[in-house]
Amino acid sequence: MAWAVLVVSGVLETVWAIALDRSSGFSRVAPTVVFLVALALSMIGLGYALRTIPIGTGYAVWVGIGAVGTAVVGMVALGEPATVVRVICLVMIVAGVVGLKVFH
């Protein structure tokens, strides 16, 4: 259960990062509310998961999911460049996250 919560929390990290960008410095209400709710839920989930998953593994997996998710949304939906090198780097992050889970 802790791993499922950790994955959802990582996805919520992507949500709050995108909402933070879209809030235009907290000047837009809807993205600011999405940011605050997603941030709170993401942190609560991370805290729950870390009750059974070691901090080094849990935090690295959470950050990895959030970073890769945010970068993918940026490339797919926000027009950021999807270069070969960038995609390879994201694949390496995913490999690291999977390795942390497998060798936990």
UniProtKB/TrEMBL annotation:
Belongs to the drug/metabolite transporter (DMT) superfamily. Small multidrug resistance (SMR) (TC 2.A.7.1) family. GO terms for molecular function: transmembrane transporter activity. Keywords: Cell membrane, Membrane, Transmembrane, Transmembrane helix, Transport. This is Quaternary ammonium compound-resistance protein SugE. The chain crosses the membrane at residues 33-50, 59-78, 84-103. The keyword Methyltransferase does not apply. It is a multi-pass membrane protein. It is found in: Cell membrane. The gene is sugE. One of its GO terms (cellular component) is plasma membrane. The keyword Lipid metabolism does not apply. It comes from Paractinoplanes tereljensis. InterPro entries: EmrE-like (IPR037185), Small_drug/metabolite_transptr (IPR000390), Small_multidrug_res (IPR045324).
